[in-house]
TrEMBL record:
Biological classification of the source: unclassified sequences, metagenomes, ecological metagenomes
Entries under PANTHER family matching the protein: CHLORIDE CHANNEL PROTEIN CLC-E
Official protein name in the record: Chloride channel protein
Membrane-traversing stretches: 21-42, 186-206
Main location: membrane
Subcellular location: Membrane
The species this protein was found in: marine metagenome
């Protein structure tokens, strides 16, 4: 088994084969490729999310969030919350907050930004206790809104500054955004420098002469019968996971396309399906990866045919379309 896997990974180039695979079988296999590449693409995206979380946010105990409510173009309300918690980026992603922290309230009236107000807040006994200028104000939930318990002027004014919230064991606001402003500048600098050294080490370890992307899929289709080196594709994916997660100013489009092309091509190589079908499966992998990444199956099909395959024959169009739809369905099922 290990020997067969090694042969697959070491396979670089094969002579062209005669195309004769039944079209129905081709369509069935395109569903398998679409779903498989979609799961791989989802795992790829989750991997660099975890790298970002671990490198930048797991070391930070005070993530912040911002809530903005616009009344009209000249009047808006901005609340910057800083919570005392240790759940880090995951808590922000799930829109959950701790039970206490600090809050800065900034109001813009008629285009004029008012002086910020800072106070402590705490959630206990199903009430929100806010202290501004050493004056405690208690608020309670009425439906989904926070309403002051004491009908004094200060409480009424503060109530206008509070977001819509949902009563729970923690405060759950409708919108929150994690911020790198919570990460110390020295931490970001060290992470970027260390990340650059680590990426260089990966290039040396995997013996990659350069970075790879969508252009390699086009070259493989033209010059190499649609065959892409599996080892090179997997190594490139690992490098991209690390570089994106560590802060490189690149997107996931190129790596996702290259990974999808590698997996699709590898599927054709593994089953010795011939040049025509290998090129088609290469396109299936690309279409599925794009559809999964951006939830755009139609654009994925058009891009694959225009930029990679170079034609719209039915034998290629049908499998690639099915793979894109299958990949998008998997992504939607998993909440992407």
């Amino acid at each position: 088994m290990v020997g067969e896997i090694k042969k697959l990974f070491d396979r670089r180039q094969k002579p062209p084969y005669q195309a004769g695979t039944n079209l129905l079988l081709l369509l069935v296999l395109s569903v398998v490729i679409g779903a498989g590449v979609s799961y791989s693409t989802i795992g790829f995206m989750q991997a660099f999310d975890r790298v970002v979380n671990w490198v930048y946010f797991d070391w930070n105990d005070s993530p912040s969030g911002r809530y903005t409510h616009k009344v009209d173009p000249r009047n808006k309300l901005t609340l910057d919350f800083r919570g005392n918690n240790t759940n880090n980026l995951q808590s922000l992603k799930q829109t959950h907050w701790p039970t206490s922290g600090r809050c800065t309230i900034v109001t813009t009236r008629e285009g004029v930004r008012q002086a910020p107000v800072t106070g402590e807040w705490e959630f206990r006994d199903k009430r929100v206790h806010v202290a501004i200028d050493n004056q405690p104000i208690d608020l309670q939930f009425v439906g989904k809104h926070l309403v002051p318990i004491a009908a004094d002027a200060n409480a009424t004014q503060l109530a206008d500054h509070l977001p819509v919230a949902i009563p729970n064991h923690v405060i759950q606001f409708n919108y929150k955004q994690g911020s790198f402003t919570d990460v110390p500048k020295w931490h970001i600098l060290v992470a970027l420098i260390g990340g650059g050294l680590f990426i260089g080490l990966l290039y040396l370890t995997f013996k990659l002469p350069r970075g790879h992307g969508p252009a390699d899929a086009i070259i493989a289709r033209i010059n190499n019968d649609g065959i892409m080196p599996i080892r090179e594709g997997i190594s490139t994916a690992l490098v991209c996971i690390s570089s994106i997660g560590l802060g490189a100013s690149v997107g996931r489009y190129g790596p996702a396309v290259h990974l999808g092309a590698t997996l699709g091509s590898g599927f054709g190589q593994a089953f010795n399906l011939g040049r025509t079908n290998t090129v088609t499966f290469l396109g299936c992998g690309i279409a599925s990866a794009i559809a999964t990444s951006f939830n755009t199956p139609i654009a994925a099909v058009i891009f694959t045919h225009e930029a990679i395959i170079g034609h719209y024959s039915l034998r290629a169009f049908a499998p690639i379309t099915i793979a894109a739809v299958a990949g998008n369905a998997v992504a939607i099922h998993h909440g992407r």
